[in-house]
């Protein structure tokens, strides 16, 4: 659980008021006009009233902005911890018994799906050991979307919303490694290569068609966007081959779809299989990260759909492995200096820090108009923290008190061996820390 502390202010009252006034000036409220009183005393009283109202309005704006950011974060968490479309069909001696058994099964199945979404590898022991009482205690909301029943049978489709805090506590107590952090959406460019022809936007592209039919529910750990292939796409991005593209044109395409990263997936029939190559583009050039092979079989199975599912499974598995926080890992302490332009920037940075999995004991020691001193603990190594910070658009550079950190993309240069998001190669020291590490942090532009 994230604990937030505000350090005792040891500054003189006049100094504290100066800082607060400076912070208040970063928000421009509606002017407050008070009648001028006659005489020095009246003027002084009016000035005091104006100052008090300005500060109060700044405080209100601070809280309102924080609430808005918190609401957005809560909405994202609700989506990640929501399991929909759980179908049950149970027969028993009577309708009441069938319904009770079916709903209990639905809750167990929903928790199993949530565990598949969050856990890494084969860590399923804690899920199998969770009884109905424990599972019920982690459910925030339970909705029966549709149901049918007879005298001995009950059929229903259920949606379950789990409580994030309770789920985190369960996995922490179980010692499981899990991630509750979604990746920012990625644009998928599905190229189809056949008989020496490269196809992206053409109608005769079964690979692209399969990606468009694979709707993203919005609750995946790795959400994705498939371009429509409309006239604007064709006009702005039509390279002759999958890897010979213009990076600026790709960035323009990403901006139109509201993402800041893309992957290239090249599918090519090769005898009885479909070869699928996955490339990342985050470093400004294509870099291969994985090669998959999907058997075409006798044609009874949709090999293209299976290929899409395998690519998504790889991306999810790789992301979870890189961002999972080990609940049994030792806490590492960090001292951060947050840099921002104004009050709104500070609020956004503060709220982002509060949302990051693994961050504990966040302590705001001092705040000034464009800088704040913060200490926090993180349960994991610096590489994982850097990747999670980047997920929330927080840049991080080691301060001058320690060796300089590299400025390259924190995902590193992926390879087929390291996976899509890189692996222990961000350039940060991965050894246990015996001293508090000093870092400068800031919000990145989109």
Number of helices: 12
Strand order of the largest sheet: 1-14-15-13-17-16
Order of helices and strands: EHHEHHHEEHEEEHEHHEEEHEEHEEHEE
Secondary structure tally: strands: 17
Overall CATH class of the largest domain: Alpha Beta
What is the CATH architecture descriptor of the largest domain? 3-Layer(aba) Sandwich
Portion in beta strands = 25-35%
Q: Report the biggest beta sheet as strand number plus sense, adding barrel if it closes.
A: 6 strands, mixed
Q: Which percent range fits the helix content?
A: 25-40%
Segments where pLDDT lies below 50 for 5+ residues? 8-41, 51-74, 402-434
Q: Radius of gyration, rounded?
A: 27 Å
Averaging pLDDT over every residue, what do you get? Answer: 79
Question: Number of folding domains?
Answer: 4
Shape: flat
Report how far apart the termini are.
29 Å
List the helices and strands and how they pair.
Layout: E1 4-6, H1 13-25, H2 39-80, E2 82-91, H3 95-118, H4 125-129, H5 132-137, E3 139-149, E4 153-162, H6 164-174, E5 177-178, E6 186-194, E7 197-199, H7 206-213, E8 224-225, H8 231-236, H9 247-256, E9 262-270, E10 273-280, E11 287-295, H10 303-323, E12 325-326, E13 331-339, H11 343-355, E14 359-368, E15 371-379, H12 382-391, E16 394-398, E17 437-443
Parallel strand pairs: 1-14, 6-8, 6-9, 13-17
Antiparallel strand pairs: 2-4, 3-4, 5-12, 6-7, 9-10, 10-11, 13-15, 14-15, 16-17
């Amino acid at each position: 659980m994230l604990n937030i502390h505000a350090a005792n202010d040891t500054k003189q009252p006049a100094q504290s008021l100066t800082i607060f006034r400076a912070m208040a000036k970063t928000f421009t409220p509606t002017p407050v006009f008070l009648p001028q009183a006659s005489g020095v005393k009246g003027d002084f009283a009016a000035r005091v009233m104006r100052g008090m109202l300005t500060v109060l309005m700044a405080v209100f704006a601070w809280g309102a902005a924080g609430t808005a950011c918190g609401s957005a974060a809560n909405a994202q968490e609700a989506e990640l911890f929501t399991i929909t479309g759980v179908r049950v069909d149970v027969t028993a001696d009577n309708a009441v018994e069938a319904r009770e058994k079916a709903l209990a099964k639905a809750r167990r199945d929903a928790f199993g799906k949530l565990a598949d979404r969050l856990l890494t590898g084969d860590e399923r022991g804690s899920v199998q050991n969770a009884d109905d009482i424990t599972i019920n205690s982690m459910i925030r909301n339970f909705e029966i979307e549709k149901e049918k029943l007879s005298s001995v049978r009950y059929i229903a489709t259920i949606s379950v919303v789990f409580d994030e805090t309770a789920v985190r506590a369960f996995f922490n107590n179980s010692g499981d490694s899990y991630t509750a952090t979604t990746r920012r959406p990625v644009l998928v460019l599905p190229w189809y290569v056949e008989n020496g022809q490269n196809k992206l936007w053409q109608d005769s592209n079964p690979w692209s068609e399969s990606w468009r039919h694979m709707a993203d529910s919005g609750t995946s750990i790795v959400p994705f966007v498939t371009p429509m292939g409309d006239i604007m796409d064709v006009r702005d991005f039509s390279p002759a081959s999958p890897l010979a593209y213009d990076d600026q044109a790709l960035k323009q395409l990403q901006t139109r779809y509201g993402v800041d990263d893309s992957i290239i997936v090249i599918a090519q029939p090769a005898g009885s299989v479909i070869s699928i190559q996955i490339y990342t583009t985050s470093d400004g050039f294509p870099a291969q990260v994985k090669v998959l092979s999907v058997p075409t079989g006798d044609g009874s199975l949709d090999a293209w759909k299976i290929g899409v599912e395998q690519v998504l499974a790889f991306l999810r598995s790789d992301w979870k492995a890189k961002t999972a926080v080990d609940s049994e890992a030792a806490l590492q302490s960090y001292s951060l200096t947050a840099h921002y332009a104004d009050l709104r920037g500070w609020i956004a940075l503060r709220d982002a820090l509060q949302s990051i999995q693994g961050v504990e004991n966040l302590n705001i020691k001092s705040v000034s108009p464009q800088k704040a001193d913060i200490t926090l603990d993180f349960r994991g190594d610096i590489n994982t923290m850097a990747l999670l910070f980047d997920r929330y658009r927080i840049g991080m550079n080691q301060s001058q008190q320690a060796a300089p950190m590299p400025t390259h993309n924190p995902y590193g240069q992926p390879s087929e061996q390291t996976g899509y998001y890189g692996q222990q190669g961000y350039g940060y020291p991965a050894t246990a820390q015996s001293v508090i590490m000093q870092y400068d942090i800031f919000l990145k532009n989109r």
